[in-house]
Amino acid sequence: MVLSPALLAKGQAAGGVPPTQPYVNPTYATAYAPQAAPPQQYAAPVPQYTAPPQQYAAPAYAMPTPAAPAYGANPYAGQPYPAAQPAPGYGPSVYTAQADPQIEYAPGQAAVPVLPQPAPAADIVSPPINEQPRAIADGQGEYDAATAYGYPAHQHCNPTPGYVQGGCAQQPYGAYGASCSSNWGGSSPAYSGPSMTCAPPIIWEVYGGALLMFRDDENHYFYSYDSAIESNQYLDAREAYDDFLPGFEVGFRRFNACTCSGWEGLYWGLFPGDQLSAVYATDVTGNLDPILDFSQLDYNGTTADNFTNAAQIHQVQRYTEIHNAELNRVWAAPGCGTSCSPWSVTTLAGFRYFRMKDYLEFASDVNDTLFTGEADELYYSVDTENDLYGGQFGAQFQRRTAGRLSFNGGVKAGVFCNSASATSWIGGSAGTAIINNGPNAGREWLITAEKDDVAFLGELKAGLAYQLGENWRLMSDYRVIGVSGLALPTNQIYPDLRGVNDVELLKTNGSLFLHGVFVGAEYVF
Question: Who contacts 199 (Cβ-Cβ below 8 Å, separation ≥6)?
Answer without folding.
Answer: 184, 258
